[in-house]
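Work Package 4 report. The design task specified in the project plan requires that, given a folded chain encoded as structure tokens, an amino acid be chosen for each position. We show below one input record used in the internal validation round.
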């Protein structure tokens, strides 16, 4: 038996001013997307903005349903929207933010496991990693180089 360790590095910023202007714009678009959230049940808004190769920005927000398991996460909405508007196009960066009407977020929101797997499949399809920017109002900003850093041992469809 041997023991193995898995770890990863990510960037932590105090403020959006420390990021480049392209990232700052994506952050602004993710914040704007919060207003598109339909989340009357959780009152937890999630906004996402994807920078597509070529410069287009596509946004999305979570959409809930009275039948709770049918809730659709912001990340799934934005990935579907990219595929509809720019089929097969490469996503370079995704910014994700969240806002709750009842709780003040003390650290950046992180995507659920299912959304990590969705982003991972997109990375595999496009053969290129997607930078992920995570932040909320008054939190630090995390920049992760690839979703695989936060989805170790991800399921890879090539084994099927
Ligand atoms: N949600 C997202 O949009 N993305 C995630 O990665 C996790 C959770 C949404 C689903 C639901 O509308 C609300 O946040 C509370 O779970």
């Amino acid at each position: 038996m041997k023991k193995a360790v898995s770890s990863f590095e990510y960037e932590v910023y105090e403020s959006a001013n420390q990021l480049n202007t392209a990232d700052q714009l994506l952050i602004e678009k993710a914040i704007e997307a919060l207003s598109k959230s339909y989340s009357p049940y959780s009152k937890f808004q999630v906004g996402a903005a994807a920078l597509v190769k070529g410069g287009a920005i596509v946004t999305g927000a979570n959409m809930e349903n009275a039948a709770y398991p049918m809730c659709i996460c912001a990340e799934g909405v934005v990935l579907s929207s990219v595929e509809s508007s720019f089929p097969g196009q490469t996503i370079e960066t995704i910014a994700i933010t969240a806002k709750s009407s009842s709780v003040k977020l003390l650290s950046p929101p992180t995507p659920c496991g299912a959304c990590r797997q969705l982003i991972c499949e997109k990375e595999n399809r496009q053969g290129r990693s997607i930078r992920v920017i995570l932040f909320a109002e008054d939190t630090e900003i995390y920049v992760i180089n690839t979703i695989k850093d936060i989805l170790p041992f991800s399921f890879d469809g090539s084994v099927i």
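The two ends are 28 Å apart (CA to CA). Validation will be extended to a larger panel in the next phase.
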